[in-house]
Amino acid sequence: xxxxxxxxxxxxxxxxxxxxxxxxxxxxxxxxxNLVMIDGPTTGxxxxxxxxxxxxxxxxxxxxxxxxxxxxxxxxxxxxxxMEAFTTSKWGMKIAGQIRRKQLTDFERFQVKLLKQxxxxxxx
Amino acid sequence: MxxxxxxxxxxxxxxxxxxxxxFRMKIFAPNDMVAKSRFWYFMxxxxxxxxxxxxxxxxxxxxxxxxxxxxxxxxxxxxxxRTGIHNSWREYRSNTVTSAVEKMxxxxxxxxxxxxxxxxxxxxxxxxxxNIRRNHITEVMGENVKFPLPFAFQHAKKVIQTGSRYQxxxxxxxx
Amino acid sequence: xxxxxxxxxxxxxxxxxxxxxxxxTKHNPTKLRSSIKVGSILILLSGRFAGNxxxxxxxxxxxxxxxxxxxxxxxxxxxxxxxxRVQPTSTVLPLEGVDVSAVSEEWFKKPRAKAASTEEEFxxxxxxxxxLAPEFLSSQKALDAFIMPKVAxxxxxxxxxxxxxxxxxxxxxxxxxx
Lengths: 124, 175, 178
What we know:
- The complex is a heterotrimer of chains A (124), B (175) and C (178).
- By secondary structure, chain B is an alpha+beta fold.
- Chain B is built from four helices and seven strands.
- Chain B is elongated, with a radius of gyration of 22 Å.
- With 178 residues, chain C is of the alpha+beta class.
- The termini of chain C are far apart.
C-alpha cells in the first residue's frame, strides 16, 4: 500500500484536538517532523503552530507557496473550491451531521426518535 | 515557559572608577529572579564581578511575540557532562526564539541527560537557509517537502475519545 | 473621681430582650429564569412527575411556577413547581392571553397533617384526606381546553408531551441543548 495523504504545504487538515477542535485548516509551513503551521482564514482558525498528532489529513490540497499569507490561502481556497469539496464530501457531511445532532433541542431530538422508529417500521 | 531578558549591570562606582563599564546580557529564564541569578553566575565567570561588588541597572523582558513565520535558529552552547565540558552547535526551527531555546533544553535533556543548570547558551541567532548544517533541519526545508503519517492512530484516537477503551479489532493506522 | 454625664450609676439586673435588627427589610420576589416563558415546555426533574414534560403557565406570587401536563395528555395535573426543579426547553407553545387569574395558591397548600392517635383514625384519616376544590377542577379543565388546540396545531407535540424524558447511552446532560 502506498501513502496518498501527506503532511505538506497546502494540505487541508481536520483538527481533532485543542483550541480549534472540529475545524478545518490548511498547512502553510512545516516546522519539523512533529509540528506544522496551520491557518484557516475561512474557518476561524488563526495562524498557529499545531502538532501533527492533533490533526487528521484530508485528501484535499490547495496550491499555495510555503509561508503563504492568509489572503493568499483564502484566495486559493476560493479559487480551487477545496473547502466546499471537503464539506460536501462524505466525511465533511458526517461532521456537519454530528454538529447538527449536537445542536438539536429536546423537541427536535424527540422528532428524530419518531423518524427513526418510522424508518425501522418501514424496513421491517 | 522561558522568557528572554536583557539585563544591564556594572561594578559599584568607586572613587577611582566613578563611571564603571556597563555590561549587557541576554538571558533565557523562566522569570526575572532566575534571570538575575544567571546574570551574576555568568559575570563571575566572564568578568571579575560578583553580586557583592556590583549592581543591576535594568531588567527588561524582551517581548516574545508569536510570529506566524517559521525561522531557523542556530545556537552555540557549552554544556557540562559527567566527563567534561563540551561546546556544540545546534539548530532548531521555530516561530519564536524562546520556543527554539526550550526545544534545545529538552533535546539536550533527552539526548545527553544534561540538566538546565549545566547548559550555558553562548549565542542564539536566526540563520539563513544556506548556512544550515544539520540534516533534521534541511530535510524539512526544501521546496516540495512531504511526509506521510504512518502511525496516525486517528481511528483509535476517535474510539478512545468517544467510545470504549478496548476494541476487538486492531485499529487501522493507514490513511 | 470625676463622673462623666454618660456614666450610669445603676445597671439593670436583667437584660431586656430586644430583637436584633433584621437585615431583611424587604422581600425580594423570585426572579423568573430568563429561559422560562409562559408556554415554555419544561422537564420536571424531581417529585412524583419527574421526567414528565409539562407546559408552563406562568409564575405565581410565591415565586413558584404554575404548570400543567396538560392533565388530559399526560396526567400531570395543574400544580406548582419550584423553578430550580425544572429543566427549561427552548420549545414554547403560543399561549398568549392565557388567563390564570382564577388560580388560587390556597388550592395547592397541603393541610397540616394531624397525628393519628388511634388505629381507626389512622385508617380513616378523614381530616388528612385532601378534597379537590371544585374551582380547581373547573379551572384545570378550562386551561386544558385552552392549551389543547395549541398543542394539536404543532405536529408531534402531543406525543412529545406524552413522552417522558430520559437519558440514553452516550448522552451527557451538560453537553446537551434543550
